[in-house]
Specification:
With 507 residues, the chain is α/β, with parallel strands linked by helices. Helices cover 35% and strands 21% of the residues. The chain folds into 3 domains: 141 residues, no CATH class; 167 residues, 3-Layer(aba) Sandwich (Rossmann fold); 130 residues, 2-Layer Sandwich (GMP Synthetase, Chain A, domain 3), CATH 3.30.300. The relative contact order is 0.11.
Length: 507
């Protein structure tokens, strides 16, 4: 009998019951007040009069009126650069212990985002809350005795003068609680290996020795790792070596485009739980099985604001117009697209994280990521968010019975006008013309602006089929394999030309 697992499951059930009902709106008000109080004597807090904001009748309104929006470039150029020159108390008391390196999906040059000790604690506590939420899922007791394989960035962080640097998944993994280390795979020694291929090779070697109950990581890299384990051990599916695998925690990107190819590696269905961990903080996680939406972490070091998504509010460089209105959690509506703005215990203030979200349940503060502000395809008025593109791709997979784990596209101008030009990563024998027709029909039905654009300047859809490995090699050349690296779903014409040149060289 799994005694330890029963005890852990019982503790989770009891703790979750004791936690009681939550009030996200009240929690957010407390978080904002706490952030302003802690940072009131910093350079940033004095510049924007945090003490005056705290004394106002409406703290949220005063905060939004007195503090401008920032993206990485603007806050780094105005404030964070001082941290690298040895200054203290810049946007948060003291100096950050870590900097999270992030090129994300938008470029080669890494951003260096401060990660304070308070943020490490916040991420850890959000992780504990997610574990407690497992009481809502019907997992057997012995699941809580199995290993959790976390495939993130290397935990061998870069030492600088007074801090460490690395990707947020590596920083988080290097700070896991002591009680969790017995469950954590691949273990500290393998996790420190910087080269992704070498790390996967070690995982493949150790795979028969582990009893894995859960997986965590970016879908594309998890899939590649699973394929290597299956291939090297001559398996039909991953459950032949890890029969107790019950759950996969996805993070950072929508799971939908990977669902079919991921499930093909399984011997039976497993539970997929979405998680929203960004370089700037642990933002949300799925906490109940009735929905695949994620609950915002509203009581833990992050204050959220929401700008109604309107292309007129987004400037050419992807930043926000300072006149764009912001809403609090008390003011949002279900089903509307919003640009997500955060202020955190790491000293990010009214910060454009780059994602768009929509609420599926306002009372529970549950959201879905709908896309990226820079990946919103609005050439010739088509107004397509990434979630609409993902939905169209899933419809294509189902109709043609194929797997397409990766894709990218661009509104590219040809001699006769603009075409949405898709590159699909698939091993299947796909007719590009049939795929183009299916995608076009799906998007016409799902988006009225796209349908209007197709009757005017948008001439049609073109599809090219390449092997999925081309996408992974592109990421390897432009950024780095594994970790937090994600594929650009939508490219501008200049970047898309680089992509097409790269594809030509691979053929």
């Amino acid at each position: 009998m799994p005694i330890i697992g029963s005890v852990i499951k019982g503790l989770i059930d009891v703790t979750d019951t004791i936690a009681g009902d939550e009030n996200p709106i009240e929690e957010q008000q407390k978080v904002l007040s706490s952030l302003l109080e802690q940072a009131s004597k910093t350079q940033f807090g004095e510049k924007y009069d945090f003490q005056g904001i705290l004394a106002s009748d409406n703290i949220g309104k005063s905060f939004s009126e007195q503090v401008p929006y920032f993206d990485y470039e603007s806050i780094n150029d105005a404030w964070w650069y001082k941290l690298h020159e040895g200054e203290e108390n810049v946007t948060w008391p003291g100096n950050p212990d870590y900097f999270a390196l992030s090129s994300g999906t938008t470029g080669k040059t890494s951003k260096r985002i401060p990660v304070t000790e308070e943020m490490i604690k916040a991420i850890r506590w959000a992780g504990i809350k997610q574990v407690l939420a497992l009481s809502n899922f019907d997992f057997p007791s012995d699941f809580f005795e199995k290993g959790i394989l976390m495939l993130g960035s290397s935990t061998d962080l870069i030492e600088k003068e007074d801090h460490l640097e690395g990707e947020i998944s590596g920083i988080s993994a290097s700070n896991i609680p002591s009680w969790f280390r017995g469950y954590y795979k691949p273990g500290e020694e393998i996790a420190e290996i910087d080269d992704w291929d070498e790390r996967v090779e070690k995982i493949v070697e150790e795979a028969p020795n582990w009893d894995i109950g859960g997986l965590s990581g970016i879908p594309s890299w998890i899939e590649l790792m699973l394929k290597e384990v299956i291939k090297s051990h001559n398996l039909n599916h991953i459950h032949e070596i890890w029969p107790n695998l019950e759950v996969y925690t996805s993070g950072g990107v929508a799971f939908g485009p990977y669902e079919k190819s991921f499930n093909a590696l399984m011997g039976r269905p497993i539970t997929v739980i979405d998680t929203y961990l960004a370089s700037e903080g642990f933002i949300a996680f799925q906490n109940r099985p009735e929905t695949d939406a994620m609950k915002l972490v509203t009581d833990n070091g992050i204050y959220f604001e929401f700008v109604p998504f309107d292309p007129d509010y987004i400037l050419e460089d992807g930043s926000l117009d300072q006149d764009a209105p912001s809403l609090t959690l008390a003011e949002v509506e279900k089903g509307q697209n919003y640009v997500l703005i955060i202020s955190t215990v790491s000293g990010t203030w009214r910060y454009l994280i780059g994602d768009t979200i929509e609420f599926t349940d306002v009372e529970r503060a549950e959201i879905k990521i709908t896309g990226r502000t820079k990946f919103f395809l609005n050439t010739v008025g088509s107004q397509l968010s990434v979630n609409k593109l993902d939905d169209a791709l899933q419809e294509l997979e189902n109709k043609l019975d194929i797997e397409v784990p990766e894709y990218t596209l661009c509104a590219k101008k040809y001699e006769d006008g603009f075409y949405h030009t898709w590159y699909l990563g698939s091993h299947a024998d796909v007719d590009p013309k049939e795929a183009a027709k299916t995608l076009d029909t799906s998007l016409k039905g799902a988006n009225k602006n796209y349908k209007v654009a197709r009757s005017k300047a948008l001439k049609g859809v073109k599809v090219f089929i390449v092997k999925p490995d081309v996408f992974y090699d592109w990421n390897d050349q432009n950024k780095k394999k594994g970790g937090q690296v994600k594929m650009e779903r939508v490219m501008g014409e200049e970047k898309f030309q680089e992509w097409e040149d790269f594809v030509d060289k691979q053929s």
